[in-house]
Amino acid sequence: MNIIRREQYGILTLELTGRVDSAGAGELETALNELLDQGHFRIVLDMAGVQYINSAGLRTLADAVTRARSRDGDLRLAALTPKVARVLKIIGFDRFFDDYPTAEDAYVGL
Question: Residue 98's pLDDT is what?
Fold first, then answer.
């Protein structure tokens, strides 16, 4: 998994490329925990380059959004591929995350 960090409008975006499988979820968890520990509670994940996510990745997302929202922040997902969006819908995560077409769309109101 490749993670590129960028900041725009005071919001941190992580651009993800690769698989959010057990190894990738560990890398993502480390990156998200670092941001949250530093007090960054408004985060967008640009997932245009993610073709696969497993239960470890889903747990990482659930943990991070819970931490962010407990501090009046949010974790937003942008540019989901159809395959990843389908997985989120099947397990009911679409009730917790809105799917934004682009990272820029996810910034609105964040």
Answer: 84
